[in-house]
Write a structure and sequence with these properties.
Chain A is mostly helical. Chain A has 9 helices and no strands. Chain A has one domain. Chain B has 4 helices and 6 strands. Classes of the chains: A mainly alpha (254), B alpha+beta (163).
Chain lengths: 254, 163
């Protein structure tokens, strides 16, 4: 299938629903396996750090959640552009469904950062550029959540969220380069992709956890998209058939 | 591409560029106000204000830590490039505090440019390694003294303008 055909097919929520079933299960299983392996490896097998001892191990949650927070936001930005330009139904659903996961990842990154900061830096919180830009991203997620709830007309809400998501994209490079542009208490990047500043026995479990978190994101996003498709296309015949097949006892909307 | 979509795409790109330039200019204008702390050279050359609560950071100079009574401690913070200042502190130091460590102090400069600290925080760099590996590294011939993590990269941005 060429890219152009795929692009046109993505316009059909039904096609996406039928295709995404096995992928959802696959990502779910992969996430569970990878995170189980990664966490045991990180917490029990990986060596201590020469300076921080065991407390550095919170990195194995902090780093993946922080990376995922940015990735989710970039998904929202791309979905926002597609929604505004091509008016694709699926883009609006992504814009709605990815927000809670991104919110959780951002909040987790901030909380684990604070828990890590107390024993290593000696403080829970400091207003440095990295931490504040991440806090701004948390508020952007809250804003996207609230904006959709605040506007009653679904298409208008979708477009407003798209604009907010695109505007917020500006924050992504600020978060990424905050530790290079300004003096911060937060450490500079450990360059995970271009030659990590740690040996492989510390780096590999982190890598497994990062991939695991990406699979978890794919699973959560696909599962909530599938639910959203059923909800929005409720009146169509194919959804009625879908709803009758697997769960016959379920009360049906008439 | 459909002309209507093309114009909408340009509108979106225009929005993104506009917001990007605006935020970029704001950040440029704020420049070093966004720095969390003064590096040692700014403390020495007088850019850091005296008798106002500030944060300053650098590396704890090797062999400079002197402990007094009741948790009192005195040490020198340096950037390994010729600038250094004295710090007086009474309180509990973070676990990572040691000679050669990057740290950040909050307090007031007195007339002799000694920083009387109210809080000392430890800054760690991006390097992680197991203890055995770190031991091997200390036995090996040491390369140039480490600079404050993040200080080198941030330095060019701070060279112009006042605080």
């Amino acid at each position: 299938m060429s890219l152009k055909t795929l692009w046109h097919k993505l316009g059909s929520p039904r096609w996406f629903y039928e295709l995404s079933g096995p992928w959802t299960t696959g990502f779910g299983v992969a996430a569970a396996l990878l995170l189980a392996v990664g966490c045991v490896w990180a917490l029990a097998i990986a060596p201590e750090d020469y300076q921080q001892g065991n407390s550095y191990r919170i990195m194995y949650i902090h780093v993946p959640t922080a990376i995922l927070a940015q990735s989710v936001y970039m998904t929202l930005g791309v979905a926002g552009v597609i929604l505004l330009v091509w008016r694709m139904k699926l883009a609006d659903m992504v814009l709605a469904c990815a927000v809670p996961f991104g919110l959780w990842m951002t909040a987790l990154a901030l909380v684990t950062g604070a828990i890590w900061g107390k024993p290593t830096w000696g403080t829970w919180w400091v207003w440095d550029a990295r931490i504040v830009s991440m806090l701004v991203q948390l508020f952007l997620f809250f804003g996207l959540y609230a904006l959709r709830e605040a506007i009653p007309r679904a298409d208008a809400a979708g477009r407003a969220c798209a604009v907010l998501a695109i505007v917020g994209l500006v924050n992504i490079p600020i978060i990424k380069y905050s530790v290079d542009w300004w003096l911060t208490l937060h450490q500079p990047s450990s360059n995970l992709l271009t030659g990590p500043t740690m040996p492989s026995e510390m780096y590999l479990p982190l890598f497994v956890n990062i991939i695991g978190f990406y699979c978890l994101y794919a699973y959560v996003l696909l599962a909530s998209l599938r639910l959203e498709i059923l909800r929005r296309e409720e009146k169509t015949q194919w959804v009625q058939q879908q709803l009758q097949q697997p769960l016959p006892q379920q009360p049906q909307a008439v | 591409m459909h002309p209507k979509r093309k114009s909408r795409l340009f509108l979106v790109l225009f929005l993104l560029a506009g917001v990007g330039i605006t935020v970029g200019l704001v950040l440029l204008a704020l420049n070093e106000n966004l720095n969390l702390f003064y590096p040692p050279d700014k403390v020495v050359n007088g850019e850091a204000p005296v008798d106002r609560l500030i944060r300053a950071g650098g590396m704890v100079k090797d062999g400079s830590v002197v402990r007094g009574q009741n948790l009192e401690v005195e040490f020198v913070v340096t950037d390994h490039a010729g600038s250094e200042f004295r710090v007086l502190y009474a309180g509990i130091l973070p676990d990572l505090f040691r000679e050669g460590q990057g740290i950040l102090v909050q307090g007031k400069l007195d007339a002799s440019r000694t920083l009387v600290a109210q809080e000392v925080l430890a800054k760690h760099d991006e390097n992680y390694m197991p203890p055995e590996l770190a031991e091997m590294e200390t036995q090996a011939p040491k390369p140039a003294a480490p600079s404050l993590p993040g200080l080198d990269e941030a330095a060019p941005l701070n060279s112009g303008g006042g605080a």
